[in-house]
Amino acid sequence: MLHNIVEDLVEDWLERILAEYTCCKCAKCRMDMMAMSLNKLKPHYVVARDAYSRVRYLDTSTQNDIMMAVVTSVEFIKDHPRHEG
Ligand SMILES: [Zn+2]
């Protein structure tokens, strides 16, 4: 089983960043934010059993790119939610 660790990191950052925002945090918006962030980033696959050490695989600049991608996506979806209200 392969696992994209960038997905985990995007999810972690999304939780942390959303805590700072008062925007819609429904499941639809979260999924849109996740998808948008992941489409901006290169996937980074590891064998699933090694996923626990995921952070060690990525250098600081890659981790920074992930954080920035999530911030940009949150900002965008916040202003353009894909549902009414
Ligand atoms: Zn929403």
Plain-language structure description:
- The protein has one domain.
- With about 80 residues, the chain is mostly helical.
- Helix 1 (about 5-20) packs across helix 2 (about 25-40).
- The model has no long low-confidence stretch (mean pLDDT about 90).
- The chain has helices at about 5-20, 25-40, 60-80; strands at about 1-5, 45.
- Strands 1-2 form a two-stranded antiparallel ribbon.
- The site of zinc ion (ZN) has 6 residues, from helix 2.
Number of strands: 2
Strand content: 5-15%
Supply the number of structural domains: 1
Class derived from helix and strand content: mainly alpha
Average pLDDT confidence is 90
How far apart are the termini? 40 Å
The order of strands across the largest sheet is 1-2
User: What overall form do the CA principal axes indicate?
Assistant: elongated
**Number of distinct helices:** 3
* Poorly predicted segments: none
- What Rg, in angstroms, do the CA atoms define? 13 Å
Main beta sheet: 2 strands, antiparallel
Task: Report the bound ligands by name, code or SMILES.
Answer: zinc ion
Element pattern in H and E:
EHHEH
Helicity level = 55-70%
Give a quick summary of the entry.
It is built from 3 helices and 2 strands. The chain has 85 residues and is mainly alpha-helical.
Please supply descriptive tags for the structure shown above:
single chain, 85 residues, mainly alpha, two-stranded antiparallel ribbon, 56% helix, 7% strand, binds zinc ion
Task: Record the SSE blueprint.
Blueprint lengths: L1 E3 H14 L8 H14 L4 E3 L12 H20 L6
Antiparallel strand pairs: 1-2
Helix pairs in contact: 1-2, 1-3, 2-3
